Amino acid sequence: MEHELKSGIEYARHDGLGISGDLYLPKGPGKHPAVVAVHGGGWQQGSSAFHRSWGAFLAHHGIALFSVNYRLIKDGRKAYPEAVHDVRAAVQFLRAQGAQFNIDPERLGITGDSAGGHLAALVALAGDKAPFAGAYPESPLAKISTAVKVCIGVYGVYDMAAQWQYDLLNRPGDNIVQKFLGVSLLDDRDLYFESSPLSHATRDRNQTAFLLAWGSEDDTVNPQNQSKAFLLALKQAGFFARTTVLQGAAHFWNTEPMDEPGSYSGFLAPRVLRFLQEKL
Predict the structure, then answer these.
(1) Checking CA distances to 181, which of 25, 212, 258, 261 falls within 20 to 30 Å?
(2) pTM score
(3) Does the pLDDT of residue 1 top 80, yes or no?
């Protein structure tokens, strides 16, 4: 199936700043399911262009993808909870405005890798709850739900305190979680709990299906205390949760072209597609 790309769609205006994304649309008729895609980059770099391959792949198979930008750490300024509010708005935008793009507002999902996996999972689990809901009451999207049917996390950060501890030992000069939250774990443990998707993996929110993927050799985001710990919490709370482990993969490969020999994203792609076709 052919696809159409609509670049630079402004989906929200927060604190005077326009937030945009790129929408990859199937060209076929009918209402299409859609997925919001949240890029990685340690909450401090990256852009919507990171999901070019995924956008084309999913749109070719009849699923729209909205690859979004969001506010990043800049000049030493934190980006939490601002980044969460931006990603929330992307889901709200598709639900409210999707009909004009032949998108089915009842069949929405979200995906993200690394820092994007954190934001995607947090919105999927807690987007309609305090302290995230209602941040911009003047927005025309303010009362639109951020509920999604599926969430796909690729080597994501799900426990912020565990990542802070890991960074302290392995990259003490660049504690990305502390920069993102703007405070040390030693000064505000409540904030680390609040901002962790794992904290929100409770039975009252288990209507969302999850697919978690990670590389067996990831030494940037430790699978043991992130993806595996999150998976356990999801299963304990009765979520539908599946996994894909990419043997030999390290970190940050989800932007690879899928048609390259040995591409890890190429390996993941048919598994993601099958999951979406079953659950979205």
Answers:
(1) 212
(2) 0.98
(3) no
